[in-house]
Structure formats: C-alpha cells, structure tokens
Amino acid sequence: MARYVPKITNVDPFYxxxxxxxxxxxxxxxxxxxxxxxxxxxxxxxGFQQAEVSxxxxxxxxxxxxxxxxxxxNREARLREAKANxxxxxxxxxxxxxxxxNQRKPTDPLADTISIVDIDYKDSQKNTRGxxxxxxxxxxxxxxxxxxxxxxxxxTMGRNNPYYQxxxxxxxxxxxxxxxxxxxNRQDVINSCRxxxxxxxxxxxxxxxxxxxxxxxQDDLLWSDYIWVVVAAPYTLSEFVKGxxxxxxxxxxxxxxxxxxxxxxxxxxxxxxxxxxxSEILGKLSNIVDYGK
Length: 293
Prior knowledge:
Blueprint: H1 22-45, H2 66-94, E1 114-118, E2 133-135, E3 144-154, E4 163-180, H3 187-199, E5 211-216, E6 228-232, E7 235-245, E8 252-270, H4 278-282
Antiparallel strand pairs: 1-2, 1-5, 3-4, 4-8, 5-6, 6-8, 7-8
C-alpha cells in the first residue's frame, strides 16, 4: 500500500523542525502495518468473516458467525428464563397451570398439523401413489370457502317477479400450500406438488381420482364431516438450488436445480353419497339460537 508523506520545509508555518529521517519513516511504516494487522485480527475474532451460504436447508442460521450465534443463544436463554419466572408468578397469582404447546406429546401422528388424507389409498405392492397422507409444512394463512347455488327463473304471465326453481349447488374450498424443502436433496418439494396434482387425475383406466379428507389439527373439528375431490392444484416453483457443500466432506454436491420452495393453489369440491339435509350442512359445530322466542 502506498504511503503519502507530506513535504516538510523550513518555510512551513506549522513545523520548523528538521525533516524526518529514514529511521522515522521505518518506525512509521512498522506502526501502520501493525495497525492493519490488528484490524484484520479484530474482524475475525469479533465474528465479521463471511458466512457459509451453501449447505443443507438448516445450514443458513448461525453458520460462520460463532460469536453472534453464542450471543443469540445466551439472549434466548435469558428470555426463556425471564418468561419462566413470569409464568411462575402468574401461576401463583391466578392458580393456572402453564403447559407450553411445544411440550405436548400427542399420540396421533396427524395431531396439531394440517394433513391431506387419501381415503381411497390402498396399501399394496401395486399401489403407485406413494403416500396415504401428506402433512403440510405450514398452516395455510387463509381459507376461501364458496357455497354457490343455482336458481333458474321461470317467467309467469303477468308476474313482476318470476318463480325460481332451485337446480343445485356446490361447495368449493381454496387455499395455498407453501411447500418448503426439508431434505438435503430438495426433492421433497416437487414430490409433494406432484402428489397433490395426481389426486386431480385418474390412474389411467385403472382407478378413478381419489377422494380426500382435510384433517385440521388434533381435534379435527372444522372439516371433519367433509369429503372432497381435488379439482385443481397448480403450483409455482422458486428458489432453485444448483448445489450444496457437504458439511462433513466439504465436497460440492450437485442437486440438479431442484426448487427450494413452491406455492401450490389447491381447489377442493365437496362430494357426498346422498343429498345432504340441513342438519348435515350445519354440522356438529352448530349452536342454533331461536330468535323467534
């Protein structure tokens, strides 16, 4: 690195001493190099080095930042301790028993998750559909439910308004699934999208499209009485991964540009084996209030 040494003369009003000699320049150069080395050392000891960004799906948090990771862990530990102390105080005051949700141990493998269950799945060696059910990685942000009924107007001579003939209705449920890679090879995203897509189609001339149930959490109250057919399942793939570095061997592994994430919009239509009664439409959750009384 070049150094700029100002020219010092006797006419300089700010300095009237002698010009620096070779010994002074040598000392200044050594001092500057020592300062640069100290800056580089501080960068590494304080955790400012570049983080490793190529690795498995769970390798992007706290990688390459040991000091920051330690500080984050200590901060989270202090927050947990403060929260635990607060819970003890609240419990003593209100006689509540506190049970964090992440400490519950449900026995049902579908508990506390959203799952699409293939109710026509047959467990046999000839079955090629892969899964009997598929669990969503996240709870959908919103559900769009549409109950559409069709009426035909029957015009009658002299009537200002016609009679209406009810011809039928259908129930439609739509929501988005956010698939995110959970495996190192990233192939689970496209496999999940194609499994839902396969539910919209028949198995050649062998099987009709399968019916499904939507299991909504451990209690399964919201859609427990509903059986659906999947009529559409388009998806958008994104975040393609070319390769990753093996955390053990440090060798680069090719992943074939598999998508890291996909958004799939699924459309379900309710199907029944009989014409539903009003009590079945209201369902088990109904709490009817007679306002006429």
